[in-house]
Design brief:
The structure holds 2 protein chains of 2 kinds. By secondary structure, chain A is an alpha/beta fold. In chain A, 31% of the residues lie in helices and 23% in strands. The longest helix of chain A is centred in the middle third of the chain and has 16 residues. Chain B has 13 helices and 2 strands; from the N terminus they run ααααααβααααβααα. Chain B is globular and about 55 Å long. The chains are: A alpha/beta, B mainly alpha. At the A-B interface, helix 2 and strand 8 of A face helix 8 and helix 9 of B.
Chain lengths: 509, 318
């Protein structure tokens, strides 16, 4: 099944691969060469054709033309199963597992060994693969739906190894991982490499790419614009290749005047075991909230937005001295009126993907468009949505286009447009640039900092430190529900933030 | 923890409603004869629920089973009438096989329309529910079809012909079937794929599970077991009735869901569905025995279905 390779020959070689969807040319000239046992990063903006290329390699799409060779033989899988049998496995961005099945069943799915239709257990081999990956503690009989994101990813990688993959394609593997788990993923990639398995690594985090990859290939508009760059290539040059122009300054340095306190949060406790947090949100200020996934960042934002109860504490509107909490101890956020919340989970919660751009944007504040007899004034609605989309530079074809058809960056802008349409004073942003490409990230940075300059108070929760340092005025770090003191970003160092995030204290101090 | 609690729901529901009617109803309710009667009354819904278990775990739904059951009874009656009064020995077998085949064929239609043509199963089977019912009426010339008496009529006798059987043959059929379904779901590749399809169809496709073929088989199996339920329905009625089992699909679906089946797919168990069917029988029988007027019966049955599910909800509050 798996052939052997002459020394020095590439494991995989693509030349001039083309693929069109209708009129859209997703790939026009994609080249890629992967050596055995190499970690090769594939970078590019969203829409550059990375995912299309991955789908072609993984066998779920067929190219229109171009040469593809794997292990020295022509390679043109017509089904994911065929690619898998040849030794190419895809670890998906949206983890592709059946949550109701156990670990072993997921690993064997579609290729179960059986006699007379009865499944032969593979528990021993599954356990062997898991422990080789350093996850021997993962029970093959555990239900996948009960596992965390990181463990699910292990299951996917184990699935690839279990079927003797020579090349593993990882699409944004760290996008949903907390930093500590990302570290163990990197360690795992190193072991795969030592075993002679090649990895194609797609990521938006260029710092990460520089650490993990041996070489880097850059795609732009369906074309390979730089092939096999060494990992030492400066991030600036990679960015320039990705966007096709030199990138001067990705974080806007708009001068902001920090004004009055808008919302005073006092001794706020959400969740058990959390210490009370006190801070204030001020006009013109972007307050960053760092911390690992699961550190309580999201819970804090969600409780402030009234999406989950908090156990004690008050949030007080400074101007009117009115508290946000009603008698039941649940925050009354009046969504869209004064507090705007951006969900970290755009697909599941943030947007209704099959609804139109117009419906999604206007959803935050439909009352505004209510006319006589309670009917919606569709004209006014369209006008308002169009205006806000223009302001955010959302690229869409028409207002009634389903929002799911837009790219990730544009989807996120539609989600953000709600905060603008709803006239929110306080913006609670949970991972606002997740799954968004470099170009759109820059636009979101500019947009948020403009909003702050116009007097909004922004609370920005995120994991990506350069982003938090670039965007925020002040920063606090969460660890297991406890919040560090708020300090201006200038007084934080990255290592201090990491120390707080991982141990809940200031490290050396 | 949560899953464990969910697994208890059918047991608690069954025990609860049994105790309720023991308290409310006459002593005869919990007499041995009535218990055997309840078991017998659960058979038709139970057999249908076994097929529905596959369909629901795979993330589908089949509203046409009630109509298929009726169709099967009519088909059986027609086959039994082929040789007039002199019924050959093999004819009852052929009639039974015919009923199962009719069901399988109907299921295949459902599977083809939903899996191959990708029409939502709810809509497909909402349509075929009407079509199969119409087909049954056509085959029966819009009236019940009498048939010569054969051993088939004894399948649902509470006191069966060879007394050592102790329970109606239909009950044994159901129990054996439930055991088989349980084994298939748990230990076969096909069973794995049923869960995988309902849990995440995209993943299943990606991993090389032949999605369309599996769905065809699942609906066919569901239909075939509806056909088998039709055989038992025929035994109950001793004739073919195109208006039989009207609305029974809802009892069947309720049985599966009470038994732990998830309408979103990926979850469900044969034993649970069996208990669910039993619960439905206890409810109907208990209401009758307790002399609860018909209108109240409907209300009680409905309330208990919701209550059983609410029990699950209450336990799983975060």
């Amino acid at each position: 099944m798996v052939g052997e390779l002459k020394s020095g020959a590439p494991l995989l070689r693509l030349r001039g691969v083309r693929k069109a969807f209708g009129n859209a040319q997703a790939l026009r000239a994609a080249d890629l060469e992967i050596a055995p046992g190499e970690v090769h990063a594939l970078v590019g903006e969203n829409g550059a054709g990375k995912s299309t290329l991955m789908s072609i390699l993984g066998g779920s799409l067929s190219p229109d033309s171009g040469e593809m060779e794997f292990l020295g033989a022509p390679f043109r899988p017509v089904h994911p199963r065929e690619a898998g049998n040849l030794g190419v496995s895809l670890v998906h961005q949206e983890l592709a597992l059946a949550p109701d099945l156990d670990v072993e069943a997921n690993i064997c799915l579609g290729r179960e060994k059986s006699r007379l239709g009865f499944v032969l257990p593979q528990t021993a081999r599954v356990r062997e693969v898991l422990s080789w990956l350093g996850y021997g503690r993962l029970d093959p009989k555990a239900r996948v739906g009960d596992l965390g994101v990181a463990e699910r990813q292990i299951v996917e990688i184990a699935r690839a190894l279990f079927h003797d993959a020579r090349l593993i394609l990882m699409d944004e593997p760290t996008s949903s991982l907390p930093a500590a788990d990302a570290e163990s993923l990197f360690a795992m990639i190193a072991r795969l490499k030592a075993r002679g398995v090649s990895v194609v690594y797609i990521s938006h985090f260029l710092e990460e790419v520089a650490r993990v990859a041996d070489r880097i290939t850059v795609l732009r508009d369906g074309e390979t614009v730089a092939a096999g760059l060494p990992a030492e290539t400066p991030v600036r040059d990679i960015l320039a290749a990705m966007v096709g122009r030199p990138v001067a300054e990705i974080f806007p340095s708009s001068p902001r005047n920090i004004g009055d306190t808008l919302l005073d949060v006092r001794a706020w406790v959400c969740g058990t075991g959390a210490a009370p947090a006190s801070f204030s949100l001020r006009r013109g200020q972007i307050l960053g909230l760092a911390g690992l996934v699961g550190s309580g960042r999201s819970s804090l934002l969600r409780s402030l937005a009234g999406l989950r109860p908090h156990s004690s504490g008050q949030a007080i509107w400074a101007k009117t001295a009115e508290t946000m909490a009603d008698s039941q101890g649940r925050a009354r956020a009046e969504p869209g009126k004064r507090i705007g919340f951006l969900s970290e989970d755009r697909k599941e919660e943030g947007l209704a993907l099959n609804l139109s751009v117009r419906a999604n944007a206007a959803l935050a504040d439909l009352n505004r468009f209510r006319g006589p007899a309670g009917l919606l004034r569709l004209g006014a609605e369209a006008e308002a949505v169009r205006a806000v989309c223009a302001k955010l530079r959302v690229r869409y074809r028409h207002l009634d286009q389903p929002v799911g058809a837009l790219s990730g960056g544009n989807q996120q802008k539609v989600a953000l447009s709600r905060l603008l349409l709803g006239d929110s004073e306080v913006w609670l942003l949970d991972e606002p640039t997740r799954g968004v490409d470099v170009g759109a990230k820059a636009e979101i940075y500019a947009l948020v900092s403009r909003a702050a300059a116009e007097g909004k108070a922004v609370l920005w929760a995120g994991s990506h430190l350069p982003e938090l340092f670039g965007m925020c005025d002040s920063l606090a770090v969460m660890h297991r529900g406890n919040m560090s003191p708020v300090k201006p970003v200038g007084l934080w160092s990255e290592s201090e933030v990491m120390a707080w995030a991982t141990s809940g204290s200031g490290g050396k101090a | 923890m949560r899953a464990k609690l969910r697994g208890l729901v059918p047991y608690l529901g069954l025990a609860g409603s049994f105790l309720l009617f023991t308290a409310l109803g006459p002593a005869a309710f919990h007499g041995a004869y009535n218990l055997k009667t309840i078991l017998t009354q659960s058979v038709i819904v139970g057999v249908g629920a076994m097929g529905m278990t596959f369909v629901i775990i795979s993330g589908g739904i089949d509203l046409s089973v009630g109509s298929l059951i009726a169709f099967a009874t009519v088909a059986m009656a027609r086959i039994l009438n082929l040789y007039g009064e002199a019924v050959p020995v093999w004819l009852p077998w052929a009639a039974g096989a015919g009923a199962v085949a009719v069901g399988a064929l109907g299921g295949l239609c459902n599977g083809f329309l939903s899996a191959r043509l990708r029409i939502v199963p709810f809509i497909v089977t909402l349509g075929t529910m009407q079509i199969f019912r119409g087909g049954a009426k056509w085959l029966a010339h819009e009236q019940t079809v009498t048939a010569p008496a054969t051993w088939l009529n004894g399948l649902m006798e509470v006191d069966p012909a060879p007394a050592w059987l102790w329970l109606a043959p239909g009950v044994w059929v159901l129990l054996l079937l439930a055991a088989a379904v349980s084994v298939i779901l748990r230990y076969t590749v096909f069973g794995r794929h049923v869960y995988a399809l309902g849990s995440n169809e995209a993943t299943a496709r990606l991993c090389g599970v032949p999605v369309v073929r599996r769905r065809l088989l699942i609906y066919m199996l569901g239909g075939a077991l509806a056909g088998l339920a039709g055989v038992l329905q025929f035994a109950n009625l001793t004739l073919g009735d195109p208006t039989a089992a009207e609305g029974m699909e809802l009892d069947i679906i309720a049985a599966v869901v009470i038994g732990g089946g998830s309408l979103r797919g990926g979850q469900g168990r044969a034993a649970g569905s069996l208990l669910g069917a039993l619960l439905m029988a206890v409810l109907r029988n208990g209401c009758n025995m307790a002399g609860i007027p018909n209108y109240l019966q409907n209300i009680v049955v409905g309330a208990i279905i919701i209550g059983a599910m609410g029990l699950d909800r209450l336990g799983s509050k975060p």
